[in-house]
Amino acid sequence: MTTPFCLPLALSIHQGLLHIGQGTQEEGNNETLGTRIVQMAIEFALKHNMPAVLILDAFVPTGAVFMLANSIWSTELRQPLVTLIVRAKNNYVAYFEAKNPEGENPVGRPPTYGEKVTLMELFDHLHLFSKLPCLVYGEVEEVSIMAVNLLWKPIGGMIRFVLAVTSHGPIIFMCSDLNQDPVLALQLYCARTRIEVMFDMLKNLINAFRYRFWSKHMPRHSRKPKKNKDLKQPSSQALPRVQLCWEAYERFVMLGAISLGLLQLVALKHTDAIWSRFDAFLRTRSRHIPSERTVKQVMARLLVNDFLILAPSAIMQEIRERYFGEKFLPQRACPPAKPEELLQQMDQAS
Predict the structure, then answer these.
(1) pLDDT mean over 297-309
(2) Residues 57, 189: Cα–Cα separation, whole Å
(3) Does one domain contain both 83 and 183?
(4) Structural contact between residues 245 and 214, judged by C-beta atoms closer than 8 angstroms
(5) How many Å apart are CA 176 and CA 72, to the nearest integer?
(6) How far, in whole angstroms, is CA 139 from its chain's centroid?
(7) At what angle do helices 339-349 and 292-308 cross, to 10 degrees?
(8) In angstroms, rounded to a whole number, what is the distance separating the alpha carbons of residues 135 and 209?
(9) Cα(82)–Cα(113) distance, integer angstroms
(10) Residues sharing a CB contact under 8 Å with residue 202, sequence separation 6 or more, in sequence order
(11) Which of 178, 152, 148, 151 lies closest to 164, judged by CA?
(12) Could you tell me which of 18, 64, 146, 216 has the fewest CB atoms within 10 Å of its CB?
């Protein structure tokens, strides 16, 4: 939990598939962004036969998300395969369980929901909270935390609400597991910031989203389309080419994700070797394990050195001649130059 890495398990295009013949518009299909994410987590858990914990932001705390997560159970664990931990919105309310009506012969239907609870008002009763140490965004601090199981109307069942007061302010979580450890729920949510770092590395370091595959058979559209249903569908003759183009998008991004995973693996397995060869300036090290950017800088220089001292008969030697040209290479009859000299020649040429 102190130095986690984040890596995508699946990357795919979700919108626009209907217009290239890969999606189906079914009646009553109420799929949303939140349910789509939960469905991907369920498919991963089923494929690998292992439980999963899905951390989501306050954008998707809906009843459909929790009902979908509770729909697939594990007979071995006797619990749903996917456990949700979602940040609740500040205006959410919940209910206590209704008490049995007094009297021998109560009239009418017994109530389902008891007293209404505005969740944010619970922070006015800090004497009910427990003070425990917790790792919050990489720093250990003492937080005031409380967990309570309440009824939530969108699903008509119980939800575990975790309320915490940290140095960043009050926060509320909704957990599908009614036995969820509140401290662990807070730590897992704080660790999700690594997702933002992951997308930054994919975008700006690996350039995984800078694909330039385009087909003239794909109709042009405005950069700001008003409605997705107004998108034009390619002709039936051009549809196979357009589908191949979309597959190229996904494969290019997936290769970038694999490259990011290799950088993370090198950082974990060869931490001391990376730092010993890192010659750039860092004002402070945020953690002991080097970042993906640090590993890439070290590995790039090592690969260039290996690239320049290859044997004359190696296949990479032919690639080097084609890329740099003959004027940047020593003659085959002459002894090979030192890597430092070739690097200096490359710098002068550039």
Answers:
(1) 81
(2) 9
(3) yes
(4) yes
(5) 13
(6) 22
(7) 110
(8) 33
(9) 27
(10) 8, 208, 209, 253, 256, 257, 260
(11) 148
(12) 216
CA atoms within 13 A on the CB side of 140: 4
pTM (global) more than 0.90: no
Cβ pair 255, 168 in contact under 8 A: no
- Does one domain contain both 130 and 116? yes
> Which is more confidently placed, 151 or 9?
151
The two structure tokens encoding residue 76: 């071995």
Cα end-to-end distance, the chain, whole Å: 44
Task: State which residues form the domain around 168.
Answer: 17-21+31-98+112-192
Please check whether residue 65 lies inside any domain of the structure.
yes
Asked if 249 contacts 215 with a C-beta cutoff of 8 angstroms, the reply is: no
The answer as to whether 7 is a domain residue is no
Q: How far apart are CA 248 and CA 4, in angstroms?
A: 30
Say how far apart CA 13 and CA 247 lie, in whole Å: 9
Strands 139-152 and 52-56: unpaired
Closest CA to 201 of 73, 66, 293, 65: 293
Same domain? 183 vs 137 = yes
**One-letter identity of residue 2:** T
* Phi/psi-derived region of residue 328, left when phi > 0, alpha when psi is between -120 and 50, beta in every other case: alpha
pLDDT in tens, 104-131: 666 777 788 888 999 999 999 999 999 9
- How far apart (Å, rounded) are the C-alpha atoms in residues 306 and 300? 10
Q: Which tokens go with 213?
A: 């595959």
Tokens of 219: 């109709």
Domain shared by 50 and 127, yes or no: yes
Please indicate, yes or no, if residue 228 is contained in any of the structural domains: no
